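Review the following:
>
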Amino acid sequence: MNTTKVKGLNGSAAKIGQRMCELRKKKGYTQQQMAERLNISLQHYSNIERGRRRCSIDLFIEVCRILDVHGNELLRDYLPINSSVMEFTLGEKFNELTQEQQSLYFDISEALIERIQSYRISNAANDKGENL
């Protein structure tokens, strides 16, 4: 498969390659196994992970499929943050937790949301010169 340069993502190849490496290791795959599954040379795959080459969209999709991740996981530093991307990413991570960890996550999230909301109210009052 050919490699292509993607305009507007200057310096991104290394970060995306690093994230690919992290996810590959998390799945327990070697670079050799990935290269074989992608039908490319080990050198080519290694260069992608090190940010020396960019992969085609077809290769990118196949990497996501093999690693069982959404493309957002690899591109999250380059995509605008919106609620659907965050919900998808948080949902995936939440599902990896045990029942006990999910309960703790929920409790921490509730406390954090309350703190953020009180912070906003406090700052809005300070901006108006009011004390709540």
Notes: Helices lie at 12-27, 31-38, 42-49, 57-67, 71-75, 83-95, 99-128. The CA atoms of residues 29 and 67 lie 9 Å apart. The mean pLDDT is 82. The radius of gyration is 20 Å.
